[in-house]
Amino acid sequence: MSKAPSDNQYFGTEKTMKILFKLAPPVMLAQLIQSLYNIVDSFFIGKFSGYALTALSVIYPMQLLICAVAVGTGVGVNTVMARFYGQKRTSKAINTAGIGTVMAVVSWFIFALISFFIIKPYALISAESEIVHEYTITYGKIIGIFSLGIFLESTWTKILQSQGDMKTPMIAQIVGALTNIVLDPILIFGMFGIKPMGVAGAAIATVIGQSLAAAITGIKGFYKPPKLNIFLPYVKQIYAAGLPNIIMQALWTVYILGLNVLLASFSDASVTVLGIYYKLQSFFFIPLNALGVCIVPVLSFNYAINRKDRCKRVFWETVAVSAAFMLLGVAIFVLLPKQSIGIFSNDTEVLNIGNVAFRIIGASFVPAALSLTFPILFQAIGKGKESIFITVLRQVVLLVPLAWVFSFAGLNYVWLTFPVTEIITCSVSMIFYKKVFHKNA
């Protein structure tokens, strides 16, 4: 009988491939569901209007920021609760759960206000077309003002996970995503006596799916908040644990927003191409992201007992497996760019821009398997500064500034930002890697 993954010796003795393929599938399933939702959502919107598809690309950074705060708050709650449970201080863990729900509501209220007042000027700087502005404002206000579901679901999911309940969050996510997918065509185009709502329908389908997922997790995940006078110490602990996660995820928002603004100076079609790219690439990055999650405890355990040789082997085997999966993405993006884009848009300008963009961006996929795994390695072995440095270098220092430099040569050159960024990030990461593991080189 094989040992359970919870047995630490399992991480020190079992073959890497066996560990990865035991732990990764559930994580990959959850990410697959989310990616399919994004793709299907964009598919229906694209069939409704090319302008609406551009609006989705414009609003994407805002959605990422909402997710960053929602998930980051949940991670903080999860971390603090797990700590209290480990110390057998159950009452404090329950207090944390109750306070976490309150912080989710507070976070939603802040974003609702921001969405109401900021969405119009944001739309104006992110696209040229007045129709895109209108669609962006409509979609953005709905998903922002009515985003309570995602904040509550993220917190309640992490509360349940801290208690060992993985099944309920998975069911909630599946039901929420499927609800969204089913409602999309009904509300966008109008069916069963419901009038066509267009972009507003897509946004309403999204928030209904999120609210339903929240309701499912809330059945077990809701705890009555304690008295207000004990909130502050708990809130400090929650955000001390969750803030790094919020910041790291928010960096995605910064660079996608920057690229959107830059590409809008060329055309709305180029913004659309970037949005389609991010929806499709999430599908091919699933194995990479899932494997990254799964190797953290393996790397942490082996580095703690000075098994640097095993750490290196786990790291490079993970990169190899990730790169093998990424080759499928390379083939699709390089060989079938127009066919891939055509799933979402038949606009000639979008297809022509995407034909060049996808082939260039596709060249970045394999090195990305390395550059995105390095920060996970350094974080897992306690080298937080190196991990943050590499992430900031890639997503803030390189991506947008390089795109700006390449933009002077023309739109086609902007896409070189992606492979160049990955190559530079890999090079800098290797310097840190050799410094950390030089004794075992």
From TrEMBL:
<feature type="transmembrane region" description="Helical">
    <location>
        <begin position="60"/>
        <end position="85"/>
    </location>
</feature>
<comment type="function">
    <text>Multidrug efflux pump.</text>
</comment>
<feature type="transmembrane region" description="Helical">
    <location>
        <begin position="139"/>
        <end position="159"/>
    </location>
</feature>
<keyword id="KW-0472">Membrane</keyword>
<dbReference type="InterPro" id="IPR048279">
    <property type="entry name" value="MdtK-like"/>
</dbReference>
<keyword id="KW-0050">Antiport</keyword>
<dbReference type="GO" id="GO:0015297">
    <property type="term" value="F:antiporter activity"/>
</dbReference>
<feature type="transmembrane region" description="Helical">
    <location>
        <begin position="171"/>
        <end position="192"/>
    </location>
</feature>
<keyword id="KW-0813">Transport</keyword>
<dbReference type="GO" id="GO:0006811">
    <property type="term" value="P:monoatomic ion transport"/>
</dbReference>
<keyword id="KW-1003">Cell membrane</keyword>
<dbReference type="GO" id="GO:0042910">
    <property type="term" value="F:xenobiotic transmembrane transporter activity"/>
</dbReference>
<feature type="transmembrane region" description="Helical">
    <location>
        <begin position="314"/>
        <end position="336"/>
    </location>
</feature>
<dbReference type="GO" id="GO:0005886">
    <property type="term" value="C:plasma membrane"/>
</dbReference>
<feature type="transmembrane region" description="Helical">
    <location>
        <begin position="413"/>
        <end position="433"/>
    </location>
</feature>
<feature type="transmembrane region" description="Helical">
    <location>
        <begin position="388"/>
        <end position="407"/>
    </location>
</feature>
<feature type="transmembrane region" description="Helical">
    <location>
        <begin position="356"/>
        <end position="381"/>
    </location>
</feature>
<dbReference type="Pfam" id="PF01554">
    <property type="entry name" value="MatE"/>
</dbReference>
<keyword id="KW-0812">Transmembrane</keyword>
<feature type="transmembrane region" description="Helical">
    <location>
        <begin position="283"/>
        <end position="305"/>
    </location>
</feature>
<keyword id="KW-1133">Transmembrane helix</keyword>
<dbReference type="InterPro" id="IPR002528">
    <property type="entry name" value="MATE_fam"/>
</dbReference>
<feature type="transmembrane region" description="Helical">
    <location>
        <begin position="238"/>
        <end position="263"/>
    </location>
</feature>
<feature type="transmembrane region" description="Helical">
    <location>
        <begin position="20"/>
        <end position="40"/>
    </location>
</feature>
<comment type="similarity">
    <text>Belongs to the multi antimicrobial extrusion (MATE) (TC 2.A.66.1) family.</text>
</comment>
<feature type="transmembrane region" description="Helical">
    <location>
        <begin position="198"/>
        <end position="217"/>
    </location>
</feature>
<keyword id="KW-0406">Ion transport</keyword>
<feature type="transmembrane region" description="Helical">
    <location>
        <begin position="97"/>
        <end position="119"/>
    </location>
</feature>
<protein>
    <recommendedName>
        <fullName>Probable multidrug resistance protein NorM</fullName>
    </recommendedName>
</protein>
<dbReference type="InterPro" id="IPR050222">
    <property type="entry name" value="MATE_MdtK"/>
</dbReference>
